[in-house]
Amino acid sequence: AFIFKGMEDGSEVLAQPDVIRREYKRLIKGLVSTYKTEFRKNGIDYSFVRTDEPLESSLGRFLSARKLSVK
To answer: pTM of the entire structure?
Structure first.
């Protein structure tokens, strides 16, 4: 755990990285699930894109999959 101390008023906030990470992942998973559901209901394609991969790779996979599904 880490304690952050406010510079103006000296207030302290306890931060537990494991708890923050777990809650962040849970919230993001729920958000992505909502996007997928709503996009699908409205006929919009959804593709997960990693920011640590070149855009060309993700775009190539997306376009290849879309080409196969349109036939």
So the answer is: 0.68
